[in-house]
Amino acid sequence: MNYSFENTVERRNTRAAKWDLVKTLYGAEDVLPMWVADMDFEVPPAVKQALIKRAEHGVFGYTFTDPDLDQTVIDWLAYKHGWQVKKQHLLYSPGVITSLHMAIQTFTNEKDKVLIQTPVYPPFYNIIQSHNRTLVTNKLSLIDQRYQIDFDDFEQQLQQGVKAFILCNPHNPVGRVWTREELEKMIELCKQYNVLVLSDEIHADLVLQPHHHIPAATIDEEMQDHIITCMSPTKTFNLAGLQASFVVVSDKQKRTALENMFNIQGVNHLNTMGITALDAAYSDGKEWLEALMIQLQKNINYVQEAFQDHPEVTAFRPEGTYLIWLDFRKLDLTQDQLKEFLQKEAKVGLNDGASFGEEGTGFMRMNIACPLSVVQEGVSRILQALTSRQN
Ligand SMILES: Cc1ncc(COP(=O)(O)O)c(C=O)c1O
Predict the structure, then answer these.
(1) Are 300 and 206 in contact, with CB atoms under 8 Å apart?
(2) Whose CA is closest to 116, among 322, 360, 323, 356?
């Protein structure tokens, strides 16, 4: 089957956060939105059909996740990541962020230290601080135009008595897919200092050649029971509005504790459409995903080439995700000036780099999961604004 990612789907007036909040967030309707991490593409045809069929049924009473759905998830993890997961290790939740909130409440206490690697996805800060846990950061180092882990600092942070580490792999926003060696070092140190790993692997299926996603829980068998993995089909297949995710917890005690927390908080089941979409995507979405990755690679290549002759902006080549981290520091603007420049002069709506942590000051995050023509338009707006600025 041929899949096209060139069609523009009109998303305005569908309560699409990306498009319908443009004026509220960026001050004008004509700003091109390239921010929140969803895609402007239609879902795989099989997913759309499954949802239509379910909608036509017309009855939307309570539903449940069953062993067949577990098997579909298990088959996907084996196919995509060579990871053999047992049915009883799976829990479902409406979202990865929900699961992380629940895990922090279940496995840590007030004031406990929780480590993150910054700059990082903004809700990670809230997950820690909203439950009165203590934020500890291991700042990523930018060496030779590549974000890398400062392992000496990582160990020093763990030595302070860190209880849990929220790993982001692939990393949002810097686009790194951590290598086996990097994962081994992180997991080894967490083992040494008895730190629970909460591994957010929501972008795992969106890894670009020649990189390869390795689930953290597969690194060291002895550590597997100290790792809680959060995954979801929602980034992969553009289903964020349907809210369906799952957690892999191999340790029985931890799984029971987390499940109890899900029950207490009332987030222990998926919605009907989420179940339908998850099932169809993992069962029939493989070819579509392969085609999507080719399109994303094309879009990324375009952005890289376009900025090559503009040394005032550095576009980091992502190893995974459809998010490009852009370094505007050479423009020598304050963050407010940079935001104003992009909103008012370039008329593009990007994510503010500083929202990912102080290390993101001078940076912006651009979402390229849209038709190439839209990426071209966004990049051309930025380049034109840069030229006007110089003149
Ligand atoms: C690293 C990361 N984790 C979690 C999420 C959101 O997950 P969910 O919608 O399942 O809560 C995102 C969305 O962009 C993300 O980038």
Answers:
(1) no
(2) 356
- What does the mean pLDDT of the chain come to? 97
Residue 354, phi then psi, degrees to nearest 5: -70, -20
SS3 129: helix
pTM above 0.90, yes or no: yes
Give dist(CA 376, CA 381) in Å, integer.
8
Q: pLDDT tens digit string along 102-130?
A: 999 999 999 999 999 999 999 999 999 99
Which of 36, 39, 93, 121 to mutate for ligand 1's pocket (most ligand atoms within 8 Å of CB)? 121
Ligand 1 atom index nearest CA of 245: 10
Burial of 160 (0-12, 13-18, 19+ CB in 10 A): exposed
Q: What is the pLDDT of residue 318?
A: 98
For the record, the structure tokens of 382 come out as 């930025």
Domains of the chain: 17-43+286-390 (3.90.1150.10), 49-284 (3.40.640.10)
Cα–Cα distances (Å) from 132 to 101, 113, 119, 128, in that order, read: 12, 10, 21, 7
Quick one: DSSP state of residue 133? P
Q: How far apart are CA 379 and CA 305, in angstroms?
A: 11
Bond preceding residue 94 cis, omega within 30 of 0: no
Tally of CA atoms within 13 A in the half-sphere of 83 that contains its CB: 27
Residue listed under structure tokens 């049915």:
87
Tokens 């070819």 sit on residue: 287
Q: Which tokens belong to 274?
A: 């989420």
E strand intervals along 8-108: 32-33, 90-93
97 C-alpha to ligand 1 centroid (Å): 6
Give the angle 237-70-75 at the CA atoms, nearest 5°: 65
Instruction: Output the CA 123–ligand 1 centroid distance in Å.
Output: 8
Local structure of 294: helix, strand or coil:
helix
In the numeric block, the tokens 């759309």 are attached to 48
pLDDT tens for residues 213-248? 999 999 999 999 999 999 999 999 999 999 999 999
Six-digit token pair at 369?
């999961």
Dist. CA 19–CA 349, nearest whole Å: 10
